[in-house]
Amino acid sequence: MTDRILGLHHITAIAGNARRNQQFYTKVLGQRLVKKTVNFDDPGTYHFYFGNEAGTPGTILTFFPWESMGPGRTGSGMATGIGYSVPKDSLEFWKDRFNQAGTKQGEIGQRFGEQYLPFQDPDGLNIDLIVSSTPDDRPSWTTAETTTENAIKGFHSVTLTLRSIKPTATILTDIFGYKLLEQEGPRYRYITDAIENAAIVDLIEAPSAPHGYNAAGTNHHVAFRVKNDEILMEFREKIAKKGLHITPKIDRDYFFSLYFREPGGVLFELATDNPGFTRDEPQNELGTHLKLPRQYESDRARIEAVLPSLD
């Protein structure tokens, strides 16, 4: 199984205020700030990684919080929804918690036989908490308020909205090894059996949907998981043979990556498990230090001076 796509690795989104973003995901959602670093292309902007205790692939939601960025627009050609897995009977806890925090939320519903609670983060990013029909034994990051009985486990799924699902579905099935599980209306559920959790991609076919616009409250890209560099490059060859433009291997410090835009317009990334988030911090100190890409270390004082305060 290790030579296959192992479900989701991480999802990256855009926020409009660093402090607000960090406070919501750590204080309200109870996620661990696994890594505090900067954008590779814009070192005056943070790059946050939120996840479980170890920063396990399949639990990591990352953000580029560009200060004062205006709202984006969800639409076709992008990831329009994130699904987090939560324990059975925990949705009422989260509904009460969101009420107390003033978090915008919808009503508990059911999709594909699973209960879910939709809500939005402070920038309007669409997220569902889902009670998975598949057992989820992944260890949660817990706090005094979010305990093992209700804490987020990691990703359940990601939703892509497309004018036509067929070209994207072909990438999922022919290259990534996913299979169509079932359909509800315009939503088609694809799943891989290479891993138990973070294994689902939902495709919504919306022929008349306007194109999305990337800014605050939208998803930037979706990263799929592979075991190591060797398998990463095997997938690069498969994708290139399909006539798609794909980047060379890029060192992202905590994983190695390839990027390509699938035919429906969504930016896909393939990311490795290695070397992981403990390459520059021990696990018990993850997220407590500002870690800079090597090329920016000599400019640390200037970068620290321009980054917004998180206090």
Descriptors for this entry?
globular; 5 helices; 2,3-Dihydroxybiphenyl 1,2-Dioxygenase, domain 1; 311 residues; alpha+beta; eight-stranded mixed sheet
Describe the structure concisely.
The chain has 311 residues and is of the alpha+beta class. The protein has five helices and 16 strands. The strands form two sheets. Strands 2-3-4-1-13-16-15-14 form an eight-stranded mixed sheet. The chain has an eight-stranded mixed sheet with strand order 6-7-8-5-9-12-11-10, with helices on one face.
The fold-level CATH name is 2,3-Dihydroxybiphenyl 1,2-Dioxygenase, domain 1
Query: What's the number of helices?
Result: 5
Mean pLDDT level: 97
Shape: globular
Low-pLDDT residue spans: none
Which structural class do the helices and strands define?
alpha+beta
Counting structural domains, the number is 1
Total strands: 16
CATH homologous superfamily annotation = 2,3-Dihydroxybiphenyl 1,2-Dioxygenase, domain 1
Side by side, the strands of the main sheet go: 2-3-4-1-13-16-15-14
Helix coverage percent: 10-25%
Distance between the termini: 44 Å
- Rg calculated over all Cα atoms: 18 Å
| Name of the level-1 CATH class | Alpha Beta
Topology:
Blueprint: E1 8-15, H1 18-28, E2 32-38, E3 46-51, E4 60-65, E5 78-86, H2 91-101, E6 109-111, E7 114-120, E8 126-131, E9 154-162, H3 166-175, E10 179-184, E11 187-191, E12 200-205, E13 219-226, H4 229-241, E14 250-251, E15 255-261, E16 267-275, H5 300-306
Walk me through what this model shows.
The protein is α+β, with helices and mostly antiparallel strands and 311 residues long. The protein has a single domain, classed as 2,3-Dihydroxybiphenyl 1,2-Dioxygenase, domain 1. The protein contains 5 helices and 16 strands. It has helices at residues 18-28, 91-101, 166-175, 229-241, 300-306; strands spanning 8-15, 32-38, 46-51, 60-65, 78-86, 109-111, 114-120, 126-131, 154-162, 179-184, 187-191, 200-205, 219-226, 250-251, 255-261, 267-275. The strands form 2 sheets. An 8-stranded mixed β-sheet has the order 2-3-4-1-13-16-15-14. Strands 6-7-8-5-9-12-11-10 form an 8-stranded mixed β-sheet, covered by helices on one side. A hairpin with a 3-residue loop joins strand 14 and strand 15 (255-261). The protein is globular. The model has no long low-confidence stretch (mean pLDDT 97).
